[in-house]
Amino acid sequence: MDNNSGKIIVLCGSTASGKSEVSLKLALELGGEIISADSMQIYKGLDIGTAKPSSDERRIVPHHLIDVLDISEPLNVYKFVELAENAISDIRSRGKIPFLVGGSGMYIRALLYGLDPLPGDDGLRKLLELEFGSPQDFDKLRKVMKSLDPTSFSRWKDHQRKLLRAMEVKKLTGKSILELQKTWTGKMKYDTVSLFLLWEREKLKKRIEERTDAMLKKGWIKEAEKMIGKGLSSTPTARQSLGYSIIGSFLGGEIDFSTMHQKIITATWQFARRQETWFKNKYPEAETVPMPVDYSIFLEKIRSKLQQSILSRR
């Protein structure tokens, strides 16, 4: 196998779809290293709640973009792309194949197609950050954006960073970021083998329930208590990590264990549905692989496409 074929292997899908397990086997078999495309696994200390690969798994196959940032540090798509591009160069320099694995669709798309060509202004961004960037200012931001750009507000009313970016673009262009994105026809920067792992909904829901139970038994509540004590709830980006705020409500006596448990499952299920919709609509290049599927099917698909790439260059 020519590990310098230039391909990037992309395994995407919703949370609990089995991406990590499959990618570990494939990377070990094909001589690859994994780049995490999970916007929360990049943070130190958010281990159980983000289903971060274990230290043993990371010894078996090198992983990149895991445990890179402290929870106090912000993460945006620009930073992710910079870090991921550096990781790709590093992996290729050693004759290995980069595996991009995760469910953060916007980050994956930005890396593969390039950053959006939408305008930005550092000065304006800093002013908006000062006025609307803290957790306490989120309600004020929502109120302004509901009037200024109702379409973006409707799409991202629960995502402070995306609303801030939408406000910046609106103030610079007078147009909604969603309107401008429709006119963007970017071309993929990388040659990829892209697979989208898709489960039947009832089976995925069962997997989410089982994974939630396992994470709670593993000590997720203690981990959340520790990270909340370190200021997780007031961080710019890490506080968006799924489930931690719900556990915080339990720790604060606002809800009981049963309610917390069900809220986590429901929130995870809703998040998984949004991820699936995003990949179907925004990343149609990825070949859908109905799950569960025999591991040999993945291996056959990827080996075939890697071989085609080598032959086409001869």
Protein architecture, described:
By secondary structure, this protein is an alpha/beta fold. The chain folds into 2 domains: 7-115 and 185-312, P-loop containing nucleotide triphosphate hydrolases (Rossmann fold), CATH 3.40.50.300; 122-181, Orthogonal Bundle (Histone, subunit A), CATH 1.10.20.140. Helices cover 55% and strands 11% of the residues. The protein is built from 14 helices and 6 strands. The chain has helices at residues 19-30, 55-60, 77-93, 105-113, 122-132, 138-148, 150-156, 160-173, 177-181, 201-218, 220-229, 244-251, 257-282, 295-312; strands spanning 7-13, 32-36, 63-64, 97-102, 191-199, 287-291. The protein has a 6-stranded parallel β-sheet, with helices on both faces. The longest helix has 26 residues, at 257-282. The chain is globular, with a radius of gyration of 20 Å. It starts with 6 loop residues before the first strand and ends with a helix. The model has no long low-confidence stretch (mean pLDDT 91).
